[in-house]
Amino acid sequence: MSNWLLFHGEKSGYDVDIEVDRRSPGRPYGKAVSRKYWRLQIQGPNAWPIIEKLQGGTVEQVKFFRMGKLTIDGTEVSTLRHGMAGAPGLELWGPYEDAERIRNAILEAGREFGLEPVGSRAYSSNTLESGWIPSPLPAVYSSEAERAYREWLPVDSYEATNALAGSFVSDNIEDYYLNPWELGYGSFVKFDHDFIGRDALEKIDPATQRRKVTLAWNAEDLGKVMTSLLDVEGPGNQFFNLPNANYGSSNFDSVIDANGKIVGASLFTGYSANERRGLSLATVDPDVEIGTELRVLWGEDPNTEKTSANPHTQAEVRVVVSPVPYSVTARNEYHGGWRSANA
């Protein structure tokens, strides 16, 4: 998304200034750090008492995804209201030179509340409970209209280095593209203004599109996948990493019904410690009902020529089609919208 905005900002003649703050390593180990801003998040059932302790007084719980300000250790920082998996919290950011001091202040304030520092692996696992698919494949690889964008992209850009992974295999790259309805964003589509792609979206019948669901993985089947790495007589199954099991930039695992028909794609997979269950976010055919038992084909095609695929055998894992968000708290307490039971 940042590359897309930068390209149009440079090439489309808009009167706009764009500042890009590229990632730097969280642990530099002597490497140069070029970041201008730090970004942290305070999240969980005790998040708000910590936030109010840092502020030194009451802090209003503004609506989901509203922005504000907070003062920490005498420094004003910017905030974004979050509610990952239904728990209150804020995302915070400010000038990079303040990062270590602010981080230490947060950890000290949170000590009595059991606050634990965690990294990016844990940060992204909450999407399994809250229902956000973070890495759909950018739909820019086939259209002649996007040729200029592809030629503009740097060789080290996300779009250039993106890696497809999973059991679903097609020679047509467009089979991996996803539209807003398949990702659960159909309610955001409005045709009261002009935008790139409007004509294509207007031709889509929302009622016939796949829809986003959560797949709850069978504990026995997932256990076999995990313990297969101890099998001394064979390669075992594709490694199921914790808490996030995705092993490519964009994962596509085939979702199969009782007749062996592919009825969807499992897109983001991992383990929820809160739910004590393996979960994946998926998009499935519109006639697949909540409560249906399906199977996810876990692992790469045996004939893959990918050099990045470790030797393994594919496994069929039973899954139950479940609501999205999976977290009951998130479904009942989020504001009205795509993640609300009242949407």
From TrEMBL:
Signal peptide bounds: none
Coiled-coil ranges per UniProt: none
SUPFAM superfamilies given in the database record: Folate-binding domain (SSF103025)
Gene3D superfamilies found in the cross-reference section: Probable tRNA modification gtpase trme, domain 1
Alphabetized InterPro entries for the sequence: GcvT/YgfZ/DmdA (IPR028896), GCVT_N (IPR006222), TrmE/GcvT-like (IPR027266)
Domain GCVT N-terminal: 32-133
Protein name: GCVT N-terminal domain-containing protein
Organism expressing this protein natively: Naasia aerilata
Lineage: Bacteria, Bacillati, Actinomycetota, Actinomycetes, Micrococcales
